[in-house]
Amino acid sequence: MRRTLERWLGPAGAAGDLPVPALINFDAADGTDIAAIERAVGRVAPGARIAAHRETVGPLLKSMHALQWLTWALVLLMALATSATVVLAARGALDIHRPTIDVMHGIGATDLQVTHLFQRKIALDAFVGAVVGGLLAAAVVLFLVAGGEALSGELTAVPAIGGKDVLVLALLPFLIVILATWVARAAVMAALRRAI
Asked: Which of 13, 68, 110, 142 is the most buried if burial means most Cβ atoms within 10 Å?
């Protein structure tokens, strides 16, 4: 430490009368009596004190947990917005193709067959959108993880993103496609029943 100070302060950094604080980092298991460790350290170095990272970064960890809940709320909001968009798209498509649907009904097509046509089209559109959006989201996540991995690891002693997190993020686009397909089916069937 004195050699490091000497590079910055010159010969005064190596002077023996310059107080140099020392920092020792250690991990304690759950249930460890920190007060007993502090008393033992105090006997060797009376000016020493122990600062627990958990207490220091406690407010930051609470903020991170709040952000996790906010993230889930945003996912729910995204699902609701997707559902509303699919319902509007399905109703718009039904209105546009109403004459064609009437002809199909006239030659014996059932509501279920008509619904399958709309469902397949909306599922394909949702899949293309989910893949493009998923790739863009993956690029953003990789950028954020690359920038915040070291900081998060130092503060919380866990990696910024784990395998379970990657799996959940990878499944989100497919869940959105399933949701869009199901909502499209329900919306088209309901609209066709009302038309009858």
From this structure: 13
